[in-house]
Amino acid sequence: MTSTYAVLSEGLEKRFGDVHALRGLDLAVPEGTVCGLLGPNGAGKTTAVRVLTTLQSPDAGTALVAGHDVVREAAAVRRVIGVTGQYASVDGDLTGRENLRLFARLLRVPRARGDELLERFGLAEAADRPARTYSGGMRRRLDLAASLIVRPRVLFLDEPTTGLDPHSRNGIWDAVRELAAEGTTVLLTTQYLEEADQLADEVVLIDGGRVAQRGTPAALKGQIGSYAEVVVAEEAAVPAAAIVLDQLTGAEPVLDAGRLTAGAVVLDPSVTLPRLVRELDLAGVPIVDATLRAPTLDEVFLRLVARVS
Question: Each residue of 241-259: b (16+ CB within 10 Å) or e?
């Protein structure tokens, strides 16, 4: 284990009765980067965060955060991290300003730090209103501000934009980008793969409590080639389009009768758009549109996790 990693775990195990939440989880997050931890419900993302932030002890394995062991040096870990959970933890009866001043007092930080964060997160005008009157996006921003009262070396964000509208989500994304630019290491768990694509330097795909794949978003997309999608003129033609895609790509097509589309991952570089259109025409499939594009992280996740399941 070296000091170049802000978060480093080896063989983390955690059980809850018969549920094996973590099965030898290995993470290595370099300092000053954003790591996106992705996985389906029950993959172990939240359990990993709880272990790394000292809220739960692992059954086996080791982990260092900012150079401190999460079990033997839990107090030292807590002094250098910030945590924003899945749900805003602010007190609705207190104003935004009072919430931050409370955290500042508990952490022995000048209360001016709270006022600075209210400005930074666009909450100054609402600072003296009870937090219960805030919108969901405002409460999430206040929660994030509270986690930054002590300028953390490592910030853990556990699905920070769940349930937010696009405008509020973009505001959180901007805040994460600013923090990373200032040198804070961010470990982000999310089910929004676009979020990881926008923010993460590295993506770690986990499934069943272990790492399935890791790499930059671009590198992961490059592993599965391109993605073909066909829009047909009528619902009855969707299965026929799927047959053509299956024959060309060898991958199981994804059908959406409501959108009149069929799509499939393309690994063979000889499958070009003109060839796809020609094969559809020869099969008599009435198409409205056909595209061959880079895959999204959603498609990457479904493909790569399927390989190791």
Answer: bbebbeebbebebbbeeee
Rounded CA-CA distance 65/48 in Å is 12
For residue 110, report the phi and psi dihedrals to the nearest 5 degrees: -55, 135
Owner of token pair 């493909």: 303
Position 6: which residue type?
Answer: A
Domains in the chain, start-ordered, CATH in brackets? 5-221 (3.40.50.300), 226-293 (3.30.70.100)
- Pair 36, 199: CB distance under 8 Å: yes
pTM for this one? 0.75
Amino acid at site 88: A
pLDDT, tens digit (0-9, with 9 covering 90-100), for 52-88: 999 999 999 999 999 999 999 999 999 999 988 776 6
Q: Is residue 308 very low, low, confident or very high in pLDDT (cuts 50, 70, 90)?
A: very low
Q: Residue 151 and residue 247: Cα distance in Å, rounded?
A: 55
